[in-house]
Design goal:
SH3 type barrels; 22% strand
């Protein structure tokens, strides 16, 4: 695709953005358009590009030299690195146009937008000229997939009005390959209405993963916009420490109501974590580390650590205890580190490779004490026990970092040391 040809915007999502020297600036996450009067097609103002630290910036279309199948190339000059903020008259093509219901003017048929194509006009402006649409009922007439059609922009109506209950199927297809943290960044850039629609369309597990990566304000907006039953299901899929942190931010009545909707065995560890101070080992720990009994083998331990749902920090070691195995467990015996397990015969017992020389922490240990403990012993996670030496959980380094950073760290605009970068978005 070279400049002047038709470009379908959904295909731009995720493409690298490069300067003329071949250095990558970031990746395309969306396109910004503005509606115009009458039947004039919307003009594309620029691209939303995700740069380092998942910050989204605005790059005007005038800076785009060419669009290739696997890259977007910019002209020379400075790029404004200020965080993108959508203005009142602006429309995010992927975030807001995809899945919109439009009406074909010719016969009044209702269609759903799955993509939009832009082309350059004689004045060198990029405008949306065509829409890819489908029937609002996929699979009709026995087909497994709905038939897609292309229509000129001026053949349909309905994109200028706010639509309630807009779907998210096409948008989620575009965003399907994103990691939870990247999808969370994408959600942050959407209007509240669209953010809620996307959240409702995600399955419980995917939404839980994304929620864990969102700032508290967005977490609260989403969880309070769900039904109590759905909110409880999502909380059950979240890590118990993240669920506890989120519930702490809600009014007491809402906390108790959602906990009642959760399954008792899922709510119990969350309730327990909520009794500890937020900036203590008890408040930061997860109650679901890898826990084994002394007669477990090295092979069993390695099999448990292969669980793809474990964070790298929690997958670095297993905790060995006396029965019972569920937290709060029997007496804590020690930790078996992943690297040591790799050097042992699979049939060996984990009780024979324990590191019991480092004392565990207690729930009241402060954030500073936890940080110092991890740094002193070069650990990525540390066990937490009660007064009877029963294992309660483990604090991982990622939870500590999250509590050390300021609450608004995701929204800060610290800039790289680059003299060619300007601070103000180009008008």
């Amino acid at each position: 695709m070279s400049t002047g040809t038709r470009v379908f915007i959904a295909r731009l999502a995720g493409l690298g953005v490069f300067d003329p020297n071949g250095d990558q600036l970031g990746r395309v996450r969306d396109a910004v358009a503005t509606l115009r009067v009458g039947r004039l097609p919307p003009r594309i103002l620029g691209l939303v590009v995700e740069v380092q630290h998942r910050r989204r910036i605005f790059v005007p279309m005038g800076r785009v030299t060419r669009i290739e199948p696997d890259a977007v190339v910019l002209t020379t000059g400075s790029v404004n690195i200020k965080r993108f903020e959508q203005r009142q008259n602006e429309l995010l093509v992927l975030g807001e146009v995809l899945d919109r219901t439009v009406v074909r003017i010719e016969d009044g048929a209702r269609l759903v937008v799955v993509d939009a194509a832009m082309e350059q006009s004689r004045t060198r402006d990029w405008v949306i000229t065509r829409l890819a649409v489908r029937s609002p009922t996929p699979g009709k007439l026995g087909r497994r997939r709905a038939v897609l059609n292309q229509m000129d922009w001026n053949e349909v109506d309905g994109l200028s009005a706010t639509e309630n209950g807009q779907g998210a199927e096409s948008l989620l297809a575009v965003l399907a390959g994103l990691r939870p943290a990247d999808l969370a960044a994408q959600l942050q850039g959407m209007p509240d209405k669209r953010q809620q629609e996307v959240a409702e369309a995600l399955n419980d597990e995917r939404l839980a993963d994304v929620m864990e990566e969102l700032p508290e304000e967005d977490q609260i907006n989403i969880i309070t916009g769900l039904t109590d039953e759905r909110a409880a299901d999502v909380l059950e899929k979240m890590n118990d420490d993240d669920a506890a942190d989120l519930l702490r931010e809600l009014p007491t009545g809402d906390q108790e109501r959602l906990l009642e909707f959760m399954e008792p065995e899922e709510a119990a560890p969350v309730r327990r974590l909520m009794t500890y101070g937020e900036y203590t080992a008890g408040g930061m720990m997860t109650s679901e580390p890898v826990v084994l009994l002394p007669d477990a083998t090295v092979a069993e331990a390695l099999a448990r650590l292969r669980n793809p749902d474990l964070s790298p920090a929690l997958a670095a070691q297993v905790y060995v205890v006396r029965p019972p195995q569920a937290t709060p467990t029997g007496r804590y015996l020690g930790v078996a580190h992943f690297q040591r397990l790799l050097r042992e015969p699979p049939s060996s017992l984990v009780s024979g490779v324990l590191d019991d020389g480092i004392d565990p922490l207690v729930p009241s240990s402060t954030l500073q004490e936890v940080t110092r403990h991890l740094a002193t012993y070069n650990l990525v996670a540390v066990p937490v026990v009660d007064d009877n030496d029963r294992l309660l959980g483990a604090v991982s380094v990622d939870d500590v970092i999250d509590h050390l950073l300021p609450e608004d760290w995701r929204d800060r605009d610290e800039l790289p040391a680059d003299a060619a970068i300007t601070r103000r978005r180009a008008e």
